[in-house]
């Protein structure tokens, strides 16, 4: 962390949050001056904040609300927001753009071929959404029914979401890189009436045929979910199955009709997202249309300063909550870029060329991609005149990587880091367009989020500089309405409200930094490293290793030690950059730097070279599976890993594995 800011805001009077502050001051006869003032007011006056945001963000309701909320005095059960209001998610997504610039570009679809892109206007998006909605209605889809997809980040997935939302159906998506077992585990729980998929996708320059896995998934789901009557193939050859047909043939036979938007309660469900499923069957997190929309518009307008003339490119798959989140850019009249393919093909710098070509103003990326970009090299021309804001999500951003960005990208472009999750389809802590950014820090708690840091006894330690659990102590808009399926209520309560009764436990290990009041995410609470009683997060180690150009990637986990298995050692696994070796000199430098930056007790007990680091499809290191493997546990099929084959190597580092191998010689 650094005492000098890495970015200082300018032109704050032109930001959405400045205008919102003035609106709040006028409406409630206040004199709020700073972000801190506004944040304190937002968490101490939740109904007023909710109402102010509802009006300021332009939520369209056909029937007015009776009051902003019921039940905001407790977090569980969650409050009921805007009782009496009736609205439609899709209508709210499309209405601002249709009103401001109906013939303006709403969506640009891109892929790995930089010479090809397709633009869709707001009017065309409305027309195609209405056609899909009519087709779904003709297949018997109505309010509350589920519509599922296995689609890449192209137009079809967006159209199915918007069509389902216009009907009042509940949408759910998974990325095509999910295996058959992962697809089945998710959709057997939510029981869709319609499944839409692509059978051929392109990734890293290669065409991948998905027919075998989709045939397997559809066959099993048809047995388990008799209501799944229609499986549509949007792109690619169809596969065998009684319920399988071409989406194009269905749409061609559908008579075009005017848009029709079911008017539904604010808390009516819009989509179901999933926990990672790395340690068991994924839980089905159900989000309400009004709640998600209000949360996301808050973050886009007030945190990201997104405007109707903004172009937002977020690299994401359709299986990550950032896909659902970025769709809401349309609800402020902005344009979104849908990119399908590998961000590393042919090189990471191709993403910079895409930003230039598409005049991107807001870019959403990740520390993993920024590290790959730094290793591979940047284009000679780094003039990015349109780019205003870059947001990093998915994992903690190190100070080292943050400084590299500031030294490399155009002056004035701020890189903000944030943390949130699928659980709330939004953020908890993030940056702000009117607040300084410090290297490796997350600047502020989001408006409306009463963030605290608690120790294991439930004591608030946020101002001490100590590390603890991230909790939220007051209700917020996008709390899920529940977990779908059997025992959903009990699972929901256990996931968030049992660790600290009545308080949202998010599972992040965090500290607040004295002096700057920024935040540092140190890892997941269930992955805290504790050798010899020294508690720290894996991100503290990763931030140091980012300094070593010889390292391509790394992962560290705890390994319990005999005889009592109460103490543990830290194992650090390193993947070397091309042409580099993990020799004694490099090992010594790594240990010395960890000892110097943290302490001698933070130095891992074992440092090992491996050929692969396991990641989820959303670009997150899978620490928990490696931790279980080195503990000698069986982890079964790694359903959410994008590279499960690399896990086999970690079995060599189980306790006693080396001795066992030696005894066989």
UniProtKB/TrEMBL annotation:
Alphabetically sorted, this entry's keywords are:
ATP-binding, Ligase, Nucleotide-binding
AMP-dependent synthetase/ligase domain residues are: 115-476
Q: Which Pfam families match?
A: AMP-binding
**Gene3D superfamilies in the cross-refs:** 3.30.300.30, N-terminal domain of ligase-like (3.40.50.12780)
| Molecular function GO terms recorded | acetoacetate-CoA ligase activity; ATP binding
Source domain of life is Eukaryota
Q: Which GO terms describe its biological process?
A: lipid metabolic process
Q: Which InterPro entries match?
A: Acac_CoA_synth, AMP-bd_C_sf, AMP-binding_CS, AMP-dep_synth/lig_dom, ANL_N_sf
Q: Which family does it belong to?
A: Belongs to the ATP-dependent AMP-binding enzyme family.
Note the NCBIfam families from the entry.
ac_ac_CoA_syn, PRK03584.1
Q: What is this protein called?
A: Acetoacetyl-CoA synthetase-like protein
Q: Which organism is it from?
A: Eremomyces bilateralis CBS 781.70
